[in-house]
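Schema walkthrough. Field components (list of strings):
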Amino acid sequence: MAKLKYGVVIFPGSNCDYDTFYVLKDVLKQKTTLLWHKEHDMKNVDCIVLPGGFSYGDYLRSGIIAKFSPLMQEVREFASKGGLVLGICNGFQVLLELGLLPGAMLRNKNLKFLCQFVHIKIENDKTSFTHKGKKGQVLKIPIAHYDGNYFSPPDAIKEIKKNNQIVFRYSDANGQLSEESNVNGSVENIAGLINKAGNVMGMMPHPERASEALLGSEDGRYIFESITNSIES
Amino acid sequence: MSNTNKTSKARMIDKKILEEHNLTEEEYEKIIQLIGREPNITELGIFSLMWSEHCSYKSSKVHLKKLPTQGKNVIQGPGENAGIIDIGDGLAAVFKIESHNHPSFIEPYQGAATGIGGILRDIFTMGARPIALMDSLRFGHLSKPRNKAVMEGVVSGISGYGNSMGIPTVGGDIYFNDCYSLNPLVNVFALGIVEKNKIFYAKAEGTGNPVLYVGSKTGRDGIHGATMASAEFGQDLEQKRPNVQVGDPFMEKLLLEACMEVMAKDIIVGIQDMGAAGLTCSTTEMAAKSGSGIEINLDLVPQREEGMTPYEMMLSESQERMLIVAKKEKVKEVQEIFSKWDLDAVIIGHVTKGGNLKVKFEGKTVVDLPVDAVINLCPVYERESNIPSYLQSAVQMESIPLPENYSQTLFKLLSSPTLAEKEWVYRQYDHMVQVNTALLPGADASLLRIKNKKKSLVITLDGNSLYTYLDPRTGGKIAVAEACRNLACVGARPIGVTNCLNFGNPEKPEIMWQFQEVIEGIAQACKTFNIPVTGGNVSFYNDTEGVSIYPTPVLGVVGIVDDMSNAVSPGFKEEGNSVILIGKNKEELGASEYLKCIFNMEKGLPPQIDLKEEKRIQEFCLEANSLGLIESAHDVSEGGLAICLAECSFLSNQKIGFNLDLQDEIRSDALLFGETQSRIVVTSKNQNFQKILDLAKKMRVKAAVLGKTGGDRLIISLRNKKIINIPVDEAYLAWKQAIPYIFQIK
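Field assembly_structure (string):
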């Protein structure tokens, strides 16, 4: 067995830190550790997870202050060396603020917080985060956010598409893209995005909330199992 | 005392000042008698807060004694921040419900948000990590723009605070009635879990132990919040706005995490949150509970504004603050943990002998009061009560015609806001964070797994105020019964109750009568079901411009499912299952949503309830559940049998329809839409329905097979003649779109 170890970062205001920790450690039985944002010690982890929540209250702009946390210097370096980084919800927002992923988040199109199960279609199954699934496969995973309306200008979107960086799109249960299934109003129905190098992914839906049958879906496991698999092999 | 002029015969405190502090002449005399002199203005402020209805329960105390509070699993009954029940495995459930009605009317967003903040502090102050929130909301009819704005603000406030804290809001209830137009109700419930040997109390023990102030700085917000919540509103509502506190959920999240970390170590003696009545309440209560005294120096209190007077600092209700009595030798360790979370933990005083609260400011003693007088010696009132005059005519029902088109009537009911789908509300709440929510909002009750344990907790809120308005005692009984029935549907036994009692002005005899009757009803039901009341909250003075709300008790009940794999949800599971009604149909139409919605009539006697029969029904449901005989269960409540059945269809994953036949020879409107109690609709697989009927016979409850699930239509026949026949999709849309549609119209 490989030495795989996940590290879940705790920012002040993170609130899915322990959920993610629980799912990785107790449900998926992976070696997992918590990382305090003020430290500089990455504890030799193989994959960094920036969890959901409201880092620093998200008063100014979602994820903007977390960008300045001491540990983020190490995370940047880790990412630049090809280390795997997964940002979930607020973690995705932090990755945008760090500039590790392109674009920005706007308020949901209905201007309300949205917590619900959604369907997302796998657009790119060649990544370290999705290869356990198949292109076109639809996953049922919940979202819970206020600012999940992804935006990038047309030129940048062209670039993103050219590089096959769109990993997930909001769709209906049959994989059809529509205005209705694009609940937060994201450009191109984007629900998940990867960097060009393919080692940093952000997604608004919460895979940790869909990793146990009793919570209504186990589709989130595709993501964690893909990561585990890519590091182990 | 510097501020007290003993030589002057004229009182320092005149009538006007007393009125501003909501104290009567008699109460003021008693204060003088207790402390042997006139209080200064800061001291008067302290008495006014702690002797307010909100803090002292002076009008309700004598009646609340009737509620059963004992039980073998009760670790903490009423009187602390929250009630605590032993749930086995070394764990305890900590829960409480509170009202935040008055602030939520004045400033809906902040009023509701700080309500959430307050109830969460009540839970984690006791050492428990909050795992769930629920809200019981009551608004005026949504045809009025103001009511819509209040609802929108309240829902955003709950969402804004609860979501940020990472505590899932998993359920609750919402009713609409014009009696809440000028007095909406926002009752918030929180549940936490604690290890039995790690419970903390509001203690101030050990002379010389340091008193620490942690959390937000003190500002002028919320001054007199508790006294505001103890008076009627008049036209001067806008002027009350500064009385509402402003919430900072991020600060509270830090406080929660820091407190949890501190409480995991053996380094503090006691802890109390500064909720309503701020520094005053926390210092006096902690000292009174331990028979000690506290001395603090206001110059050391972190302040957000300049030039605050002792009066303002003692009465401020700035949110997200805690008072901690630390172990003297461990105080550094406490401070280090708070500093890790970027929070100040400032020593502002220490525990003293002698039982007085002593407050210093700029070198002078500005308060010196015996805490016993402040906390325990508030006058208690047995207020006059009288049967209300409205009742005689209100319970008389005019004759009403039978519906011409039952399908249309069903559509109309499904799209009435009280009965319609509340997804518009709950999808604004993060109801899944903490990954424990096993039943999503919309079910009879919320099911929360306990990680790495077989058992799970089930919670629900209930309270139909139209019932309590028309028959307070019966309404009180039904509130308890229905909440317990909701739990039984999921497969849970009730273990404890918390209640929030929202009433008008208790100085009015008819309000007092309603209160006594409701308490009597709740007490009888709790005794029958053998569940202890572990605390709650009384909110009086829900009157605006002389109009009182309907008496509105809200019952929060916590239950346990021993084996989570047995838990059952309300939606149909598959086509071809038998639909079985447990319980009797009776001709009861009074106080129904049907009358209100179709005939605009709030009249008649509510359905009556036989508590013993109710108990048998619930026990039957639990037994059938544990034998694995039922696939789904949903209780019949507002809107009656037809609504209940439609919901079973809507809540099924595939929107399964049904084809049923009713045989009862009672008025058809009462049969379909009447709200007769003690009824549950269950479904079973074909091989099990006979077993259910046999079990019902054995347990002396009525059970009737109504037909089968299946198809894409809702079909109900009355003695073999179809009277309702509509496509599921259309009915579902009417139910689902009703509330979003109302909010689309500007």
